[in-house]
Amino acid sequence: RRASGRGARGSGGRWTVRPKLKALGEQVLVITGASSGIGRTTARLAAERGARVVLAARDRRALGDAEREIRAAGGEATAVRCDVTDYGAVEGLAEAAVRAYGGFDTWVNNAGTSIYGRLDDVPLADLRRLMDVNFWGVVHGSRVAAARLRSTGGALINVGSVLSDRAIPLQGMYCATKHAVKGFTDALRMELEEEDAPVSVSLVKPASIGTPFYDVARNYLPVAPRPVPPVYAPEVAARAILRCAVRPTRELYAGGAGRGLAVGGQLAPRLTDRAMERTLFAMQQHAERPETAPEGNLWEALDLAAERGTYGTHARERSVYAAAGSRPGLTTLVVAGLGVGLAMLLGVGRRDAPRDD
User: Fold this and answer.
1) Cα(first)–Cα(last) distance of the chain, in Å?
2) Which of 87, 101, 116, 174 is catalytic?
């Protein structure tokens, strides 16, 4: 089914007028993975700016906490329990948004988790489950959202990762899922543009974000996992998502270190491999913190209704690169600086990881 769309295409199937998106205060946003971390922060910031939000996750209690927090601050929110691996449940999420607010303008596929461990040490059942959550959850949400947005217009935002561009050790299957999310998102964007659908399709790629992600990941390491510095506050990723909700954006990094990692992987892939082999095994393991919840939330939800994690690393509240995203000239300068910084990192890579702040 083809929609007339709000834009017109020139030759070669390229848009001459991009999809028109509403101001955030006029929008209804559906956000998966909204009970904690990036999803919860995004919902809170959107509600503070006047948007109505539909919060989706598996944990009813954590969802209820998030909903009450937003309402107590004067916002509008509706919580819907949803496991994104269940296509029928995702269809039910869209129906709940229609019942509550008459529909939605932006759909954010944010739900996801990770597994820490060497690929040969992780059971195949866990690897398949991670693909179900991180990749098929995005596929389910995208299909359901696109079916409605084709006729109403709006934004579809998929949350990938800097690891959509560059793999790292000890999170191999997570990297594979995020590579898959990028490929799916890019292909879907082209197909929707070709049929004149008035839908903006964005991929947001966070760097290390200081959320409970590391507290709830399934873990096959001897100690608790930790993020690779620099670590950014969840607000950095949330602001990137909300920018894509109001301005058609192909992709956006949340955290300049992520862009530097991608550039290094593209320009010097083998050198980047060697640097990671020397540093990232130790840097992802919290040598002074024993693992307390190795099962994580891969198969069952954990009641961890928080925006930020508990591992103690300082989180940067702002990202110069993300802020520069709307100004191409400044972005070029920032990327150049990241390239210099990455070259220095590769030159001084060392085996021992820095201690947490």
Assistant:
1) 54
2) 174
Q: How far apart are CA 149 and CA 35, in angstroms?
A: 24
SS3 sequence of the chain: CCCCCCCCECHHHCECCCCCCCCHHHCEEEEECCCCHHHHHHHHHHHHCCCEEEEEECCHHHHHHHHHHHHHCCCEEEEEECCCCCHHHHHHHHHHHHHHHCCCCEEEECCCCCEECCCCCCCHHHHHHHHHHHHHHHHHHHHHHHHHHHHHCEEEEEECCHHHCCCCCCCHHHHHHHHHHHHHHHHHHHHHHHCCCCEEEEEEEECCECCCHHHHCEECCCCEECCCCCEECHHHHHHHHHHHHHCCCCEEEECHHHHHHHHHHHHCHHHHHHHHHHHHHHHCEECCCCCCCCCCCCCCCCCCCCCCCCCCCCEECCCHHHHHCCCHHHHHHHHHHHHHHHHHHHHHCCCCCCCCC
The C-alpha atoms of residue 258 and residue 231 are separated, in whole angstroms, by: 10
Q: Is 174 a catalytic residue?
A: yes
Among 73, 282, 262, 33, CA closest to 158: 33
Residue type, 31: I
CA distance 290 to 278: 23
Please give the single-letter amino acid code of residue 251: E
| pLDDT tens per residue, range 289-343 | 887 778 999 999 987 778 998 765 566 765 555 555 545 444 444 444 445 445 4
Question: What is the value of pTM for the model shown?
Answer: 0.86
C-alpha to C-alpha distance for 198 and 195, rounded to whole angstroms: 9
From the list 195, 97, 209, 105, the residue with the least C-alpha distance to 161 is 209
Contact criterion met (CB below 8 Å) for 236 and 331: no
